[in-house]
Amino acid sequence: MPVQKVLVVGGGITGSVLSVALAQRGVEVELVEISPRWFGVGHGITLQGNALKALRTVGVLDRVLERAVPFDVLRLLQADGRLIAELPTPHTGGPDLPSTAGALRSDLQDALCDAVLAHGVTVRLGLSVDRMDQSLDHVDVTFTDGTTGRYDLMVGADGINSRMRPLIGIDTLPTPVGMSIFRVVAQRPPEMVCHEVYYGGPRFKAGYSPISADRCYAYLLDENLDAALIGPRAPLALMRERGAGYGGLWGRIVAALPEDTAVDYRWIEAVLVDEPWYRGRAVVVGDAAHACPPLIAQGAAMCMEDAVLLAELVCGEEPLQKALEHFMARRSPRVRMVLENSLRLAEWEIHPGTPGADPARIMSETLDSLTAAA
User: In whole angstroms, what is the distance from residue 68 CA to residue 54 CA?
Assistant: First the structure.
């Protein structure tokens, strides 16, 4: 086995799935997370079939589906709530799994945290990596609390604003896409059974998805507003003002939100490391290597696929460098296709009426292509 001891930096979805997948193969895993508290952040999350497949691989799918809401169609609506079309969504994880499930991020992360601990992973909170030195056969790491460690492999899974990217010598930075998103968790109306998206309103689009028996995730895609608004407590009044003009169930959900509702507001950014994601015995994966606009709902799936495949390859019989080369050969084309198509969709949202724009075709072709094994 090329690796026996691995450091995973970042305890979110990517790092957690990777830690479990490595531990399942007998690797000694140490996971460090910069936050002093380990929990799911954000609001709702859409898990396509290939994400569900990865969760099954690490043994947490049944736990997640106990609270998540599976569905197999996407409904497109006019701004007033009238139905445009109902589209079946491809089963990217195989015919035996739902095509999609909506979940609370906290439910997903709770399941992953429990799995990480159950597999004997050493978890250290409130610290990260300060510096590292590599040799041919190991990585020496100094942590932000002054402690040190030696590992066969270090994996940066610390998100789009990764500190591990520059630390290992990759200078790629995220760039704004030109759109932003308001997000809230709300009471789920009984009639909501799948993801629905509203087009033709005053902003790029609005939508919602069921994420538990009694909760839903609602969002509004807008232009980039004042950067000072970015954060987890944007004004609800502003979301209502910007979303005025969207009716139907979306309008009713937002109108009924309590005044103290937490509104998360973010500029949407993208990043893609064009060169190999590794330097020697250090590699970045997930959003640290690639992050795309959420227009095809494949961000989490791409991250989980990275984690499962990396664990499989570095625990195989090949030398580590060959394993990392094969990892890049398999991941790079797939990730690039998803990111480029997501950016194309974003461009069409920002500039409606673009000649040749066909969002339904791009979404369908992308998801169809992902039914092939990662």
Answer: 16
pLDDT per position as a tens digit, 40-64: 666 899 999 999 999 999 999 999 9
User: At 35, which amino acid appears?
Assistant: S
Q: Which regions of 127-235 does DSSP assign to beta strands (E)?
A: 129-134, 139-143, 148-151, 153-156, 175-187, 195-199, 205-210, 215-222, 231-234
Return d(Cα 339, Cα 326) in angstroms, integer. 20
Structural domains present in the chain: 5-42+105-174+270-369 (3.50.50.60)
pLDDT at residue number 193: 96
pLDDT exceeds 90 at position 65: yes
Find the distance separating the first CA and the last CA of the chain, reported in whole Å. 22
pTM of the predicted model as reported, rounded to 2 decimal places: 0.96
Residue 43 near residue 212, CB atoms below 8 Å: no
Rounded alpha-carbon distances, angstroms, from residue 334 to 16, 78, 174, 341: 22, 32, 19, 11
pLDDT in tens, 257-312: 999 999 999 999 999 999 999 999 999 999 999 999 999 999 999 999 999 999 99
Give the H or E element holding residue 370: none
CA distance 129 to 330: 28
Q: List, for residues 170-198, the tens digit of each pLDDT value.
A: 999 999 999 999 999 999 999 999 999 99
Place of tokens 């970042």: 10
What is the β-pairing status of strands 205-210 and 195-199?
A: antiparallel
Spatial CB neighbours of 349, under 8 Å, sequence gap ≥ 6: 179, 204, 205, 221, 295, 359
Phi, psi of 296 (to 5 degrees): -115, 0
Region of 261 please: left (phi>0), alpha (psi -120 to 50) or beta: beta
The per-residue pLDDT for 208 is 97
Helix, strand, or coil (residue 263): strand
Distance CA 237, CA 191 (A): 26
Cβ-based neighbours of 207, under 8 Å, separated by 6 or more: 195, 196, 197, 198, 218, 219, 250
